[in-house]
Design a protein that fits this description.
about 290 residues, Lipocalin, five-stranded antiparallel β-sheet, four-stranded antiparallel β-sheet, 1 helix, 19 strands, about 5% helix, globular
Length: about 290
C-alpha cells in the first residue's frame, strides 16, 4: 500500500513539474518605477521595453534583448514649454518602431507631451538620439492604420478650444508615414501589417539584399532574394525619409538595375518588403 501511495505521489510530482503553468524567467527592479511592454521591431526583432519614470514623467526608455541584456537606452528629450504627462490611457500611448516614422534604421518613439501654456496634449516623435522628428499639437489620441500593402497612415484626433479651454470642434487629420510595421502587435489600431516569420528571436529572415557597386555614380545593381512564388517591393529613400524610387519585384529574378543619374550625391536607404518581412541597407551616391 505504501509503495503504491509513494508511486502515486512520485507520478503526481512529475506531472506537476512537467505541466507547470508559469516558469520564472527574470525579475526587473527599478527605484523610480517603470512601465513594461514587449515591442516587435522591423529590423531588430522582439525586445522587452521598460520606461523609467520619476515624479510621473518618463525619463528614459530601456530596450532589452530577450536574454535580458541591455540593447539600447534612450533618453526622453526635454522640450521647452512641454512636460511629459506620464503614462495614461487619457493620452497618446507610447509607440516604438524602426523604419516607420523615418527610414534611417534608428529606433523611433512617439509619446505624448503636455503643453504647459495651453494645457493641451502634443504628440512628439523622436529618434534614439533624442532628435525630434515631428510634433503635432492639440492631439487627444492617435491611431495607426494599414491602408494597403505596406502602406500606413497615422490619424491624429484633433481638438479646437476657445479662450476658456472648452472644446469647440473635433477633427481628424491623416498623416502619411514612409515606413512599415512588422506585425499586428507593433502599434495601435487594427490591421497593422502582416505577421513576420523572420527577424525575431530564433527566426531567420528569408530575404537578402545587396547593392553593387556601393558607392554608385550612374548605375547600380540591387541583388535580392525573396521566397519562391512571392512578390515584393524595393524602395529607395533619401536621408529625409522621402521615397525617391520604387520597384516591384518577384522571385523569378534576383536583381534589378537602378539608374542613379538623377539622384543627388548623398546617403540613401534601400529597403526590400516581401511576404510580411522587411530588410534595409544603406547606399551611397557619388558624382
Amino acid at each position: 500500500m505504501k509503495k503504491a501511495l509513494l508511486s502515486v505521489l512520485i507520478s503526481l510530482s512529475s506531472f506537476l513539474a512537467t505541466h507547470a503553468q508559469l516558469t520564472p524567467l527574470h525579475t526587473y527592479a527599478d527605484t523610480q518605477g517603470y512601465y513594461f511592454s514587449v515591442v516587435d521591431l522591423s529590423l531588430s526583432g522582439t525586445k522587452y521595453m521598460f520606461m523609467n519614470y520619476n515624479a510621473s514623467a518618463i525619463t528614459t526608455v530601456v530596450l532589452y534583448n530577450l536574454n535580458h541584456s541591455i540593447w539600447k537606452t534612450i533618453n526622453v528629450p526635454s522640450i521647452s514649454g512641454l512636460s511629459h504627462p506620464g503614462i495614461s490611457i487619457n493620452y497618446c500611448p507610447p509607440h516604438v518602431s524602426e523604419n516607420f516614422f523615418k527610414i534611417d534604421n534608428k529606433v523611433d518613439m512617439a509619446m505624448s507631451y503636455y503643453d504647459n501654456s495651453s494645457g493641451q496634449t502634443n504628440l512628439v516623435i523622436f529618434d534614439e538620439t533624442g532628435a525630434v522628428i515631428s510634433r503635432v499639437d492639440s492631439v487627444s489620441s492617435y491611431e495607426i492604420y494599414n491602408i494597403g500593402t505596406d502602406s500606413f497612415v497615422t490619424a491624429c484626433f484633433w481638438n479646437d478650444f476657445d479662450s476658456t479651454g472648452t472644446i469647440t470642434k473635433y477633427k481628424t487629420k491623416l498623416f502619411a508615414v514612409p515606413g512599415t510595421l512588422p506585425c499586428n502587435s507593433c502599434g495601435h489600431g487594427a490591421g497593422l501589417g502582416m505577421p513576420v516569420t523572420g527577424g525575431g528571436a530564433g527566426n531567420q529572415s528569408l530575404l537578402s539584399l545587396n547593392i553593387i557597386p556601393n558607392p554608385a555614380s550612374s548605375h547600380a545593381i540591387i541583388e535580392y532574394k525573396i521566397p519562391a512564388g512571392a512578390t515584393g517591393r524595393i524602395n529607395i529613400f533619401d536621408q529625409a525619409g522621402r521615397q525617391v524610387k520604387q520597384y516591384s519585384v518577384d522571385s523569378h529574378f534576383d536583381n534589378i538595375t537602378v539608374d542613379a543619374t538623377d539622384l543627388p550625391p548623398g546617403v540613401y536607404s534601400y529597403s526590400l518588403f516581401s511576404n510580411g518581412q522587411s530588410t534595409a541597407k544603406k547606399m551611397v551616391v557619388v558624382k
